[in-house]
Amino acid sequence: MGPQAKRRKVASKVEEINFDAADRESFLTGFRKRKQQRIKHAQEVAIKKAKEMKRDERKRIREERTAGFQRAIEEHQRQLKKLQAAEDGSDGSDQDSQDEDVEDQDWEGFTEPPAVDYEAEYIDEDKYTTVTVEEMDTSKEGLLRSAVDESDIENEDSESASKATAEPNPSAEQSKKRKSDNKPKKKKKKFRYESKEERKVTRMKERASKSRKANARRERS
Q1: Rounded CA gap, 77 and 71, in Å?
Q2: Where is the composition biased (Basic and acidic residues) (predicted)?
Q3: What pLDDT score does 17 carry?
Q4: Taking the domains of the chain in order of start, what are their residue ranges?
Q5: How many CA atoms lie within 13 Å of 30's alpha carbon, on the beta-carbon side?
Q6: pLDDT of residue 47
Q7: CA-to-CA distance for 110 and 112, rounded, in angstroms?
Q8: Residue pLDDT, tens place only, 155-176
Q9: What is the DSSP string of 56-108?
Q10: Going by C-beta distance under 8 Å and a sequence separation of 6 or more, which residues neighbour residue 137?
């Protein structure tokens, strides 16, 4: 007998296929929308990862700083212990001897400064000035006396300045007069009427110039 024929499976037939028009339209027109959603989701994931990385970095830096501070404190305490041990082992004889030397010395007070009374002259090409330096009395009466002297000097200076401004300067006035005299005087133009012949000549010149201008305009046009 020959081989048996294979039986084909008979699939159930679909009687009808229905499409949802709204879903089909949203699928066909939503490519850009879905792309933007994917981009936004990727950006959110990247931002979240960056925040986590920053948080981890700050945590690591904070831990390193605390460890460094702890090491510094331990080193400081170790050095303090060494210093205390060295001080406890040393004798206090040197300090006692220094205190005795200081007590033996007698304090003689402050030394008086030298006197400052002197005069100095300053000569310039056009000026001659004498400066007098005197020792100042620090008492109340001395300060009042110096203030009165300064006010008198200021009053004298102001009076001399006002006198100098009030007095006229003859040399300046003379120089102004000389300058005004040296300026050349402008000559006034004399006005006179033209004669008949002169007026006739000027009219002829005006007519000739007008005719030339008219001819030139005609040629250009």
Answers
A1: 10
A2: 50-78, 192-209
A3: 76
A4: 20-87
A5: 9
A6: 95
A7: 6
A8: 666 666 665 555 555 566 666 6
A9: HHHHHHHHHHHHHHHHHHHHHHHHHHHHHHHHHHS-SHHHHHHHHHHHHSPP-
A10: 143, 145, 146
